[in-house]
């Protein structure tokens, strides 16, 4: 706005009252002029944040001006549903939509220059998308659009032998905790893509995805292969490599082994039968009565042997069960100082559940920071003890670990790492060894009892419901204190 003021100099000089009035009018009128218009500026590129971390969304006014008395509103699709609202020189937390209550903070260090930053804590996949930064003064308003991209870096792919079929070894690769939807591929060590037998991407309730692919490896195909998982937001993703030695392929052709054994058995049976019939023919008349007696005695011996075998099996099971009765039960609780930040413990520290986001916990030296693990609160350095685990989820590993087991970075669940136990991956059970080996079970246990004889270095896994021995491991504790060990990808509970 321009204002032109003109008057004759002799009037102003000759009339002091008129001159004072004009000066007063000019001063008051200029002070009521509207402030200049402004623009709201945000980042010119999408903001990338990992799931579970905090996001910082900046925006500022151009030209710079004091925004302390302005309204600053952050919203997504509906103006009336603020993610965060600053009004009347204070934050209006009661007007936030429920999904963001307690999760946002407006950083106002630069507000006198028209610059603010919105902090959103514990980002989840539902936060992915556009946010609008809105400024309003008494006479003008403007806004800017920001794009937030959420990325979830999942677990290191786990490769397991599923079965032997179609003339080869059926391998399965699994990885969970990805966002957005990932891609999984098999490759040989030269980087050549290998076609998968099956591919499955599964969304979970927390918005994250799990990838599972399988392949059949034969003697004629590449025996060195890798499984890589990545998505459009994260490169290079994660990768695991496996090498299958030649001896495994003999097991990969069970029909050949069975055929060789069958031929040998048939040859022995034919030789034995020929000899038997020749002897029978030679002595048929002279030893008819003796032959009948021998046959009856042989039949009796066979029946007695079968009964003895049944008794021995029952006795072996009974001895295994009675052997465990000398162990003392311990009340195990979970140690919150060792639990990964995504593992939530119950108040009685008996139940652990995998959450979709990290908890605000201190990064202590004893806390696992990469794998979803937790140890028992109390360690043991002698004696014969046992404890039970129940309400097991779909993916887990349980056993014991030395006190010196690594807590930082990716670790392998092997005796070399100081861990002895068993693992379940959906419907498959594995023995944690080098390499991992399948663990066949007659039925799925509802609970598992773990016995430890420290002096003998034995770790025994039992199904207490049917008294079946699951497996027995020989451990080397090296005089260290040992702790109950748990890897949890859903949930499990210690019995009380």
Could you give a short description of this structure?
This protein has 496 residues and is of the alpha+beta class. 19% of the residues lie in helices and 38% in strands. The strands form six sheets. Strands 19, 20, 21, 23, 28, 29, 30 and 32 form an eight-stranded mixed beta sheet that branches. A six-stranded mixed beta sheet has the order 2-10-9-4-5-6, with no helix packed on it.
Structural class: alpha+beta
The protein's oligomeric status is single chain
Distance between the termini: 80 Å
> Which regions have little confidence, pLDDT < 50, spanning 5+ residues?
1-34
Average pLDDT level: 83
Q: What is the strand content? A: 35-45%
In helices, the fraction of residues equals 10-25%
> What does the main sheet amount to?
8 strands, mixed
Topology, number of strands: 32
Indicate the overall shape: elongated
The radius of gyration over CA amounts to: 37 Å
Helical segment count:
5
Please, could you describe this protein's structure?
The protein has 496 residues and is of the alpha+beta class. Helices cover 19% and strands 38% of the residues. It has five helices and 32 strands. A hairpin with a 4-residue loop joins strand 28 and strand 29 (458-463). The longest helix is centred in the middle third of the chain and has 37 residues, at 288-324. The protein starts with 8 loop residues before the first helix and ends with a strand.
């Amino acid at each position: 706005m321009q204002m032109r003021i003109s008057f004759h100099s002799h009037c102003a000089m000759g009339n002091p009252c008129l001159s004072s009035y004009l000066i007063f009018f000019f001063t008051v009128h200029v002070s009521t002029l509207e402030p200049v218009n402004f623009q709201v500026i945000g980042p010119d590129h999408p903001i990338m944040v990992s799931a579970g971390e905090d996001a910082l969304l900046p925006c500022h006014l151009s030209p710079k001006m004091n925004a302390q008395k302005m309204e600053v509103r952050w919203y997504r699709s509906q103006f009336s549903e603020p993610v965060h609202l600053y009004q009347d020189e204070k934050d209006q937390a009661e007007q936030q939509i429920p999904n963001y209550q307690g999760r946002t903070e407006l950083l106002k260090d630069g507000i006198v220059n028209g610059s603010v930053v919105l902090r959103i804590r514990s980002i989840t996949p539902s936060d992915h998308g556009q946010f609008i930064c809105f400024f309003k003064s008494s006479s003008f308003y403007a806004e800017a659009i920001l794009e937030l991209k959420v990325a979830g870096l999942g677990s290191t792919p786990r490769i397991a032998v599923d079965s032997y079929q179609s003339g080869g070894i059926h391998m399965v690769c699994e990885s969970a905790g990805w966002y957005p939807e990932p891609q999984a591929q098999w490759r040989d060590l030269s980087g050549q893509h290998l076609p998968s037998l099956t591919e499955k991407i599964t969304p979970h309730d927390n918005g994250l995805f799990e990838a599972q692919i399988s392949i059949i490896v034969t003697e004629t195909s590449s025996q060195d292969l890798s499984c890589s998982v990545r998505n459009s937001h994260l490169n290079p993703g994660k990768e695991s490599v496996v090498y299958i030695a030649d001896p495994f392929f003999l097991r990969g052709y069970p029909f050949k082994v069975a055929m060789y054994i069958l031929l040998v058995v048939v040859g022995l049976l034919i030789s034995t039968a020929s000899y038997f019939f020749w002897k029978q023919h030679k002595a048929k008349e002279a030893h008819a009565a003796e032959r009948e007696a021998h046959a009856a005695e042989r039949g009796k011996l066979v029946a007695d042997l079968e009964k003895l075998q049944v008794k021995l099996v029952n006795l072996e099971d009974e001895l295994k069960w009675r052997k465990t009765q000398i162990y003392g039960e311990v009340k195990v609780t979970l140690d919150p100082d060792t639990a990964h930040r995504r593992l939530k413990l119950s108040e009685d520290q008996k139940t652990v559940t995998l959450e979709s986001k990290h908890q605000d916990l201190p990064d202590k030296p004893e806390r696992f920071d990469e794998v979803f693990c937790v140890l028992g609160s109390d360690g043991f350095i002698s004696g014969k003890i046992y404890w039970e685990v129940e309400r097991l989820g779909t993916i887990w590993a349980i056993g014991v670990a030395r006190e010196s087991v690594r807590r930082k970075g990716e670790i392998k669940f092997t005796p070399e790492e100081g861990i002895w136990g068993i693992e379940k991956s959906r419907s498959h059970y594995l023995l944690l060894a080098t390499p991992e080996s399948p663990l066949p079970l007659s039925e799925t246990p509802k609970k598992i009892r773990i016995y430890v004889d420290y002096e003998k270095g034995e770790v025994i896994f039992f199904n207490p419901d049917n008294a079946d021995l699951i497996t027995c491991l020989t451990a080397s504790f090296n005089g260290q204190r040992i702790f109950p060990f748990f890897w949890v990808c859903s949930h499990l509970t210690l019995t009380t």
